[in-house]
Amino acid sequence: MVDSRVALRIHEHAAIYLTACMESLFREVLSRVLRSALVERDNGIPKITLESLEQAISNDSEMWGLLQPYQHLICGKNSSGVLSLPESLNLHRDQQRSGRGGEGPGYSQAELRTLEQSLLATRVGSIAELSDLVSRAMHLLQPLHIKNPSNGTPVHQKTNTTVHWEPEALYTLCYFMHCPQMEWENPNVEPSKVTLQTERPFLVLPPLMEWIRVAVAHTEHRRSFSVDSDDVRQAARLLLPGVDCEPRQIKAEDCFCATRKLDAASTEAKFLQDLGFRMLNCGRTDLVKQAVNLLGPDGINSMSEQGMTPLMYSCVRGDEAMVQMLLDAGADINSELLLDNRANVEGALQDGAENYTETPLQLAAAAGNFELVSLLLERGADPMIGTLCRNGISSAPMGDMNSFSLAASHGHRNVFRKLLSHTEKDKGDVLSLEEILAEGSDPGEKRLAPQANCGGTLRTGKARLRALREAMYHSAEHGHVDITIDIRSLGVPWTLHTWLESLRTCFIQNRRPLIQGLLKDFSCIKEDEYTEELITHGLPLMFQILRTSKNEVIGQQLSVIFTQCYGPFPIPKLTEIKRKQTSRLDPHFLNNKEMSDVTFLVEGKPFYAHKVLLFTASPRFKSLLQNRPAAENTCIEISHVKYNIFHLVMQYLYCGGTESLHIRNTEVMELLSAAKFFQLEALQRHCEIICTKNITTETCVDLYKHAKFLGASELTAFIEGYFLKNMVLLIELDNFKQLLYEPPPAESPASSPGICSDILHDLEKTLATRIHSIHLSTSKGSVV
């Protein structure tokens, strides 16, 4: 509705009702598809396929038209153009029910077929034929409509009233349904040789039943008892393609059909008043005196059933001559100046009662009418009053939208500032909003809203704060970030949701200065407000900004935020892997040729070992020994591993642990690679722990690249935590910025497929896990 611009303002309840309508429609479609679907033999469950869905909808005269992407309404026919009555109007079924229950008139089968043909008629040959068809249809449909209003629009009148068709409505409907060929069937009528009327194709003509249903809906919407020609034109606008008409004009309604429910004396008075309105509308000055006598005791200031005087009707039509004539005849010019005649500035809002209505100020603020807002504020309208008022107390700040929220949600910045300046003038000695926020306590003073009509509701600074928070939320939701910033400048605190929505809007609109201001304000959000939304929406947005902006200031601000979100707790430590050694030899046999049964060749040097130890050390050693050539004295060559590193690996195996190892800082990276290659998990973890203890801002980037290349997930996660915890310092280093923003060169090992993963995506996942463990987990901070 917003995208199609159906109105200047889309009420929130319209979206709710539309959603409920669509949900009910989908449920009805599903139920009808299930009824026509084939049942599986195995479990007895209906099987729904795309073909069965399309077939069920195509054969349904009620659903097929509703689901077509056309601008006009197609009703009463299926995809093949076959007309049929809806399920709610099954004449044969209703006849059986009425026959069993003894209710209603009984029809023969021939009469039922005639009625069905009348309801499904799409063309008529004459006005007499149409009048007869409409009379039959209304005689059948009216009792059903009163008995079951859900078949059409809600019934506003009493159940004993009926809707009648005016003659002009029948002539208008005949214009759309007339078929000259049907008139030629009369032998006494000679067909014309020249016609100026183009016939509408059969496929676009709706049945008479739909004409009546839509026209009567328009009639009941204006709370009338008679269908007029405008109701038929409005129905044609909905039912026929390419047909349009002007909106219904405000005019004095004819009382021809309305008088059917009155007695003779009341009917005569009604006709006389109607005649008086008609005489004044004709524009003859010599009939004013006679018209005034017919209008009743109030004379020229008499009001119609719509509550309007002849002067109001003339003003609406823009008839200046008639307006001047009525003024000369003594019409009350002040009858339209409501505020000057002590009209309630809050409109229909009633004191001490539960009512649901909108004040004039709310409507003016939503429409953005600055002049009208100013006028209403001068007359004492209260912008704090909301839509819901119970027992004289408004619940607008915490419930429905007040004037602040309506102006903010529709982006009327000038109106919002006018409302704000008005409340600032009326504050008096009440504490300012900034003072209330600073003290965090309820102000001692209270004031009475000027000329407030909602039971004298007391307005406090905290109530105004709640109203501005609500307005801040709606402005952020609708993308009016300027209004959101204005509210924030008053000292209204951020919520995580409003901050994220404002940041998203600024990012979409590429407003870099506002992005920097919002990022700077993140520290004002309390950690208690860190919710799942921060993980699911906030982190992806901020990392996307970091990825695309590549701005130093924004990068520094985001680094501060990420470090703040990571928290002051230490990075989770890695723990040693305690594994029971399956086999162990005395260290004396390390690289001892005596009793050696396998020889490794490392950097051209032999290294003597024993199968009994290596065969159970790891799957990698087992594979090397099994794939060894059968010839005796064949050495197993080990490449990509230095001799001293291989010696440390063998020392770990022969000693049965890492206690006796003396690893230099220059050797730990190569030993980590060797442990990964030989699949020695305990030795690999020991090297990872050494790396975490020796990590610095200068070495962390190279260490991270090496860990990613090896696939050391635990060490990689630790370094990512180190990045986040120290990002404020690291963002200034060139190698870290290159890691974040620039892809690795093609010849780098990190550029291999599966290795060059998105570092920002990995940091986002690590930070999300950290936030969840600290702020959202039931055992907060347990992992650290």
Q: What this model shows, in words?
A:
- There is one protein chain.
- The chain is mostly helical and 784 residues long.
- The chain has 35 helices and twelve strands.
- The protein has five domains: 12-58, no CATH class; 87-186 and 199-239, no CATH class; 258-332, Serine Threonine Protein Phosphatase 5, Tetratricopeptide repeat (Alpha Horseshoe); 355-566, Alpha Horseshoe (Serine Threonine Protein Phosphatase 5, Tetratricopeptide repeat); 582-656, Potassium Channel Kv1.1, Chain A, CATH 3.30.710.10.
- Helix 28 crosses helix 29 (668-677) and helix 31 packs antiparallel against helix 32.
- Helices cover 50% and strands 4% of the residues.
- InterPro entries: Ankyrin-BTB/POZ_domain, Ankyrin_rpt, Ankyrin_rpt-contain_sf, BTB/POZ_dom, Histone-fold, SKP1/BTB/POZ_sf.
- This is BTB (POZ) domain containing 11.
CATH architecture of the largest domain: Alpha Horseshoe
CATH fold descriptor of the largest domain? Serine Threonine Protein Phosphatase 5, Tetratricopeptide repeat
Structural class: mainly alpha
Stretches with pLDDT under 50, minimum 5 residues: 146-159, 387-399, 439-459, 749-756
Structural domains: how many? 5
Number of strands: 12
Number of helices: 35
Radius of gyration: 42 Å
Q: What overall geometry do the principal axes of the alpha carbons give?
A: elongated
Largest sheet: 3 strands, antiparallel
**What value does the average pLDDT take?**
78
* Range of helix content: 40-55%
**Portion in strands:** under 5%
Could you give the order of strands across the largest sheet?
A: 5-6-7
**Relevant CATH superfamily of the largest domain:** Ankyrin repeat-containing domain
